[in-house]
Each structure stands twice: as C-alpha cells, then as structure tokens.
Amino acid sequence: MIIGNGNNFRDMLMKTPGTCPNCNASLTFGEAAQLAKSHNIQDNVVMCDKCHRVFEVNLAPGRMTLTSDVTAKYPQIKVLLGVEANIWEPAPHIDVIEAVTEVVRAHDWDITGEKFGLAREGQKMFGVMEISRSSSPEWHRCIGIRNSHDKSFAVGLSAGIVVCVCTHMAFGGTTVIKRR
Fold this sequence. Notes:
alpha+beta, 5-stranded antiparallel beta sheet, 3-stranded antiparallel beta sheet
C-alpha cells in the first residue's frame, strides 16, 4: 500500500518504473502515459517511446507491468509517427484472388473453373480454381485458396490434382504454402 498525501502519491505514481516487453526500454508510467495521450490515445494505456507499441498496464507499489500489447487497436500511431508499427492488416479477399489469378495467367494457364465461398459473416474466404494445364483430359490441376480477416489462419495456397479447402479448417494438397 502506498501512503501519502495527494501530491506525493501522484508524484510516486508518475515515477513508477517499468520495462517494455517488446524492446526492453526502461520507462516511467508518467512518461509512457503522456506519450500515449500526445498521440490522441485516451484509453488507460501507455506507449513506449522507443518501439511505439501501446500496452495495457498493471500498477503495483513501486513497479509497473506492461501486459497486453494493444497496438493494433490504434492504427493512427502508424500515421502519426511515420513509422512501421507492425500493425496487422487483413488482406482483402478480392486482392488475394486477383493476385493468384495474375500469377496463373502470367504462366499462360487458363482458369477453367472457380468456386469461392465466405464463412463467419465474410471473415473467412475459401476457394478452388481449376487450371487447364494438364497432360490428360481426365483430370485438372487445382489451386486452393484461403484467407481470413479474423486472424484465425494465414493466407494460404494449396496446389495439386486434388486439393482440400474447407470451412472447418481442413486445408491441403500436394503443395501447401501459408504466410502470416
């Protein structure tokens, strides 16, 4: 328990030290809270002046612990600071489909069929493209595509004669590529 009059307590609180879990910079509660406020972040959070990450904070007598990294809730810091803040941004589903289509066409392959679907109110996209490039009229090569806006899985591609792309998270083929 911290005991003292209002001014002493406030001074002690503002000088409470802590360490950024992202970059290990030393900071005080007062400086980190003021930095967040200076960037129009009015919530009860603090901001590291070295790595520009925003954290929820727990205060205990004589120490401050930075808990959850909530930087992604404040995309304005990327613009305000003019730095890359490693804020996750979802790839629009149509951009993923168009990028795959562009690569397929760049190889002079034709797309003979496409099926796409959305799940979870548009948060997840699944699809299959059939490609005309094969040595037999009895089978086609396929490309499976998936993408999410809710961070449940990475953008993914699968390829092969048989691919599996399912809303229940099953995803496979002869070759599978995923990227966060």
